Amino acid sequence: KLPPLARAALYLHSCLFRFLLSLPTLQGIWLAASPKLSDDKTLVLDLEGTDGRERGEDDTNFERQSALFALAVSDVLLINLWHHDVGREHGSGKPLLKTILQENLKLFDSGKKKTLVFVIRDRSLKTPLEALAKTLREDLEKIWNGLSKPENEGRDDGKAWELDGHFDLIFTSLPNYEEKEEEFEAEATLLRSKFKKSNEENYLPSEKSVPGSALSMSMDQIWSTIKENKNLDLPAHRVMVATVRCDQSILELSHDFSENAEVKALEDEASASLLGDYGSRCKGVVETYLSRFDDLVEFFEDSVIASKRLELTEKLGQIMSGATSAQNDFCRMDALSFYGKEVGALDKDKFAERAAKVKSESLEMFDTSVMNVSITDETPKEVEDLRVRLEGEILAIYNARIKDLKSLIMESMKKVLSKALYMPFTNTFEDLPEDTWGTLRSVKTKVMKEQCQSIEEELGGLGLDADNLEGCREELTSFGKERYTSLIEESVKSAPKILKDKFVKSFCYDGKGTPRVWGPKVDVGAINLDAKKEAAKALCLLTVSQIEKEQKELTKVEEALDTLTSSEGSDLSPVFASDSWPGVEKECVLLDPMECRSVWRQMESEVSYTISQAVTAHEAAKQASNRGPPLWTIIAMVLLGWNEIMSVLYNPLLLIFLVLLFVFGRAVWLRIDIGSELEKGFIPALVSISLKITPILIEVCQQFAWQVKEAIEKNAEAGKPKEKVATNATPTSKKDD
After folding, report:
1. What is the pLDDT of residue 305?
2. How many other C-beta atoms lie within 10 A of the C-beta of residue 204?
3. What average pLDDT score do residues 720-732 get?
4. Bridge partners for 121 per DSSP
5. What DSSP string describes 531-587?
6. End-to-end CA gap in the chain
7. In DSSP terms, which residues pair with 169 in a beta bridge?
8. From CA 472, how far away is CA 449, in angstroms rounded?
9. I need a surface site. Which of 254, 545, 606, 706 has the fewest CB within 10 A?
10. How far apart are CA 635 and CA 627, in angstroms?
11. Beta bridge partners of 174
């Protein structure tokens, strides 16, 4: 323990700092920058001695507090010893060191080794430094081993609590200043070099210390903790200091970032449209502020800096969150627009496969765009949510397009089905053959089967599942049923017209389809009755639907409708007084009895004029056929042609020729049947006769020639009767012989 001047001289020549004091001894804790270590910015603490008389002999509280403070804030602790005190119990300060270590053991276990430099002044040539260092080490180990260690460390290694595991012990010495001033200054200069970072053998720790900007706050917090007799946790304290300083830097940089003109301009541009270089520009600005942050907190705890750097990045990202969100939304809308445009142009062929490819391209476009506008390399939760939203919107567009395509395909198939049913049903109801319902059932079954089989081919490219395809089949089947039911109902509504056409066809045309000529021999009543029966058969076909299955019990219906053909009202079936047909399901009835009666009456009223016209023409023909030539015409023909008659009678050849001509002409007349031909009308009769005359003449000539030949052969055979008999008799006589 040097007097003030000696201690000041020691610190001066070790180039730490100098106190110019007017007091006889140093009081309190003094701090100053070393004037000769200004390049390394070294700060030196000088503490009040442990043997000062100002505080009294028993006041060791401040001594313990100041020693603990020095241990907490310093990187290197210089312990000043007189070489004669080495090995002494009280002279070397063993009790005080033991008390400090015992009360504040956790301070030394702060995770960093403290450097203790023992400076032995006024060394003697008789006692080497190695012996003094050995004595000091033994004393320190004895004190250290005698301290009680914390039980909650959980360390099984016995070496963990060795003294060298917690301290770097360095021992050096200096000569007497008054006796050997030059030697003292030389060795002090050498000692000073140990506190320069440029010296490879320096005493300075490799770990980062508290930066100068936070030193005042750190010391203030440490001293406050020591004065309140609280446990001093240096690692937590360093973390606290680093946290406070980093928070201040984050606050300042965040405020400056939000007021930056470049940032505001970027936000305005980002809110207007999608920027291709938004991410790079934003990253550039953010990296600039992160670099400033790194410069401000360079010497603080690395773990705190790393976490606070991430916090600053998040803070800056939050400032840009509005612009970034707008850019992300633009990316979503671009990807969605691309998907909608591409999918909207797809047709039914391989739609599902091509739509899946377009979806993959759209999501890849979104991911690429989002990475281009992202500030960080990680995918934010907002982007993940936005991607999920995009996938939902893509699915909605896909389902809508599927629905539209399916509707278009189904409408097209319905049109084809409707067209395929319309003509067969319409034509069949116009003709109304006896197997009308059988034909319609065959047509219905064939068309429905073909259309249902083509559903998989038409809808296969949409990627629909089995349930959807089955639903489409059911929809098409239901439409087909509605369509042919509608066609049947429309035909039934035209029942009066159909019956009229059926009646007119049977009444006005013969079996060959030739229009009837109401000649004198035509039975109009029978033809009328036959035509009504045909109309009744047609009405029977229109009365009961047999499109789903054949109705076998229709005898009563046919019998009832046959009574409509009777001209007498008393023969009408009593069924026409009811609204149902006996033995027929109500669902199959198209026309009930009363409706049939009404349709029949309407048909009769419409064909009555046709019947009356036929009757009138028949009566006129009968009257025309009963007329003969007048008597005076016959008398005039005989008187005027008497000479010709006589000449024919007296000329056999002419008479024979006229007879043959008459026979020939009569044969031609009978074959032509001029009477029936004239019933068609004069012009049609001429056309028909002109077409028939040549074949008839050839046929009559051939027949006349054959008959002449046959007559000649018969006359020739009649002239040789005996020769024929003799020829035939010869074998008989031989037989008799």
Report:
1. 81
2. 16
3. 45
4. 82, 174
5. HHHHHHHHHHHHHB--SSS-----HHHHHHHHGGG-SSGGGS-GGGGSSS-TTS-GG
6. 200
7. 116
8. 14
9. 706
10. 17
11. 121
Q: Mean of the pLDDT values across residues 609-627?
A: 78
Residue 366 burial by Cβ neighbours in a 10 Å radius (0-12, 13-18, 19+):
buried
**For residue 312, which of 349, 352, 285 has the smallest C-alpha distance?**
285
The DSSP letter of residue 150 is P
pLDDT, mean of residues 534-546: 87
- Which residues touch 512 (CB under 8 Å, ≥6 apart)? none
Beta strands 76-82 and 114-121 are: parallel
In the numeric block, the tokens 């059932």 are attached to: 441
Whole-angstrom distance, CA of residue 473 vs CA of residue 547 = 20
pLDDT score recorded for residue 471: 87
* Strand order across the 76-82 sheet: 76-82, 114-121, 167-174
Q: What angle do CA 434, 493, 568 make, to 5 degrees?
A: 70
What's phi and psi for 53, nearest 5 deg?
Answer: -90, -10
pLDDT band at 229 (very low <50, low <70, confident <90, very high): low
Rounded to whole angstroms, how far apart are CA atoms 72 and 78?
13
**Is residue 19 within 8 Å of residue 8, measured between CB atoms?**
yes
Q: Which amino acid is at 163?
A: L
Distance from C-alpha of 187 to C-alpha of 363, rounded to nearest angstrom: 74
Q: Identify the CA nearest to 585 among candidates 552, 540, 561, 536.
A: 552
CB 115 within 8 A of CB 75: yes
pLDDT digits (tens, 9 = 90+) for 642-664: 787 777 777 777 777 878 788 88
Question: What letter represents residue 522's amino acid?
Answer: V
CA distance 254 to 301: 21
- Lowest average pLDDT, out of 3-17, 154-168, 327-341, 446-460, goes to 3-17
| CA dihedral of residues 704, 709, 715, 719 (deg, nearest 10) | 170
Tokens of 121: 């002044």
Q: How far apart are CA 28 and CA 37, in angstroms?
A: 24
d(CA 473, CA 495): 33
**Residue whose C-alpha is closest to residue 126's, from 93, 172, 84, 89:** 84
Cβ of 447: how many Cβ atoms within 10 Å? 21
Question: For residue 117, what are the β-bridge partners?
Answer: 78, 170
Look at residue 730 in the predicted model and tell me its pLDDT. Answer: 41
DSSP, collapsed to helix, strand or coil, labels residue 297 as coil
> What pLDDT, on the 0 to 100 scale, is given for residue 678?
66
The first and second tokens of residue 158, run together, are 């016995």
Beta strands in 603-645 (DSSP E): none
pTM attached to this predicted model: 0.54
- The residues, ordered by sequence, that sit 6+ positions from 638 with a Cβ below 8 Å of its Cβ are none
pLDDT at 185: 83
Phi-psi region of 432 (alpha: psi -120 to 50; beta: other; left: phi over 0): left
% the chain with pLDDT above 70:
78
**Residue given tokens 């099984």 in the structure block:** 156
